[in-house]
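Narrative progress, year one. The postdoctoral researcher (J.K.) led the effort to move from monomer predictions toward full complexes, under supervision of the PI. The following entry was the first complex the group processed end to end, covering 467 residues in total.
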Amino acid sequence: MGPTLDFLTLLPYVSELVKGLTTTVVLTVVTTLTGLGLAVAVAYLRVNGQPWMRWGLGGYVEVTRNTPFIVQLFFIFFGLPGLGIKIDAITAAFIAMTLNLAAYSAEILRAGISATAKGQLEAARALGMSTLQSYRHVVLVPAFARVYPSLISQAIIVMLGSAVVSQISVFDLTYAANFIQSRNFRSFEVYLLITLVYLLLAFGMRRAFMLVGKRVFAYQQGEQR
Amino acid sequence: MTLVCVNNVHKAFGDLQVLKGIDLNVAQGEVVAIIGRSGSGKSTLLRCLNQLEQHDSGEITIAEQQLDAGSMSPKELSENVGMVFQSFNLFPHKTVGDNVCLAPVVVRGEARADVEKVAREVLDKVGLADKYDAYPAQLSGGQQQRVAIARALAMRPKVLLCDEVTSALDPELVGEVLRVLEALAAEGMTLILVTHEMGFARDVADRVVFMHQGRIHEEGEPAELFSNPKTPELKQFISAVL
């Protein structure tokens, strides 16, 4: 008799799974909001900031996009205490994910901003708006709309990448799975289960983003493109 | 009363001298049409008047306030000067009403309720009161341009600059925009228009300015200017466009 699948062996660990799932969802929701918010600021300042600021932010974006996420996470969690900055695991996870999403999204958003027709900025200026006002009221929403699909994908990538935070002992979904299979040795069942959960999370996220987009970018309906 | 005073204004883009000493005075309530070939500097002159381009030398004074590079914020400038563009430049993600209300609320800090009332008035003036909640993409080009005019009017400018406002329109839509401008002129609005609509320039403008190679080559009352051009360049231009 070969090995058999027995998902009932996971039943005693439901509370761990729920705890892990909750952490993953909360991490994702919060870092998606903070990451995209930070991305807006970074994108704006990379276009309109002082030269030293553009240079500095360019450095941040390049370092983040060209190093592994797990190294960034380790650096924040294990490296920074060397400078006397001690952060608990969940905070380190928030910071690493926010910085990671912000760097990628800022670049995506910058493309959306630079595709803004010059006339839009001129019209805003002719109406008396400052640069900041024209970005806030005129440029931002259409720029978001232009690159929205890429931003969705990036946010999902960061959500999936969050599995790595289990390596610094954040009790997320992956940590829960590792924990369970070390107790009941049912690795096939538990990893199959969380694979499906991640899949559903990714689908759900895309779906939620689409619904938000449909509302926020409603003006595009009926637009000829 | 002189509202706009342009004195010996020069502007170059790199090595290209676009404006080579422009003098132009526009009185309050006057309608001035600027005509000329493309590349003659008409649009650049207009854009210097609200500092979308900064002139290199010379003086521009509007409502007794002198414009120098960076001397006035866009906000201060918008007290005096409004502009309508060839390509409408409506904000696509905002309804017609929001397009009109945005600047008075954001730039001037006026109360939203008051601004909405003004917005409905100016939209009524351009014949689009019923489109208040529509998005720009749902409107025809002519309607979009009329909204752009209403949007500029909501800031109550002293002078309205119109940069080839009918050039991007299908021929059958040109009339509705010109009628709005004509009504504004009749109300005493000061208008400076760069235009290719010679019929409009002739019928509505108080004065026509013909620009050629970065200078004002000839100017005068439209009837006189069109029927009796003095310079060969204007003669040639008129015969080419009429």
